[in-house]
Structures are given as C-alpha cells and as structure tokens.
Specification:
175 residues, three-stranded antiparallel β-sheet, 2 helices, two-stranded antiparallel sheet
Length: 175
Amino acid sequence: MKGQLLLVIGLALAGAIALRDLFPKREAVPTPPRIVTVHDTVRALDTAWITRVRHDTVQINVVERVTVTVPETVRVAPALTGLTALVVGARVGDSTIAGGFSVASTGTGYVLDRWQTQLYTLGPIKSVAVDAGGGVAAQFYDAPKPPCGPLCVAKHYLVGAAIGYGSCQVSHAIH
C-alpha cells in the first residue's frame, strides 16, 4: 500500500512538471520606451488690470474708426496627408519607419511638409492609419512564437510516454 501511495504521489508530481513544461508562461513582449511630457503652469499676475482707486475725475476721448470693405471670395481646400513609404522592422524591437507628406492651405498658397515617423515594432504589421497632422498609428499582430526544436520535441514525447506508463501502472495497481 505504501509503495502504491508513493507511486501515485510520484506520478502526480511528474504530471505537474509535465504540464508546466507543456504549457509554459507566455513571454511578455517588451514594451516600447515611453516619453512623458509634463507641463507646469505658473500663475502670472496681470498687472495691466490692477489700478489704484483715484478720487479725481479724468476725461478721455475715445475715437472709433470703422472700415468697410467689399466682401472677398475665399477658396478653402481641405488639408491633404499621405503615406509614401513604410519600412517594417524584421524582428520585435526593430524600428518601423513611415514617411509621407502633408499639404495645407495658408490662405494665399499651399505649404508642402514632408514627415517621417519612427515606431517600435511589436510584431508583424496589421494596419496603418495616418491622421491629418501626419501622425501615424500602426497596429501589430502578436509576435510569432519560436519553433519547437528537436530537444523540445523529444521532451514532449518523453513526457507523454512517462504519463502513459504511469497511467498503466496505476491501472494495474488498482485492478
């Protein structure tokens, strides 16, 4: 009876180790570095509005000039932003570089700005979106898991064989 109890405890321990090896914890993807900007506001006293109470009377003449002009036609064009290049890093942690342009109206003409953005690669790229200001938002798929090598495969077969052998021994011990 004592031998069977030790056998069952040993099999339970081997099963726990086998389950731990077959289902390891997922490795966390390294998080991209963050830049935090902190804005401090300082309350300033506006001295232009602070006056002393005066008891004398001062007379001020105010002249208002109104200029009337002919209405002018203003042509408005929406801002245009485009993505011209996207280079995705080969591995997790590499840089993904996106380049593009932005065209905006100044009222009397147009301004062309070229921009380039560097992103942290979290895995294979899923989608890219560009906003009107030239900001790039990219979504990535989860990073692929490394393949199971020959040693890993051998370990899986060995654990399976040990579980099968242990199950047979327990079955024969019970009957």
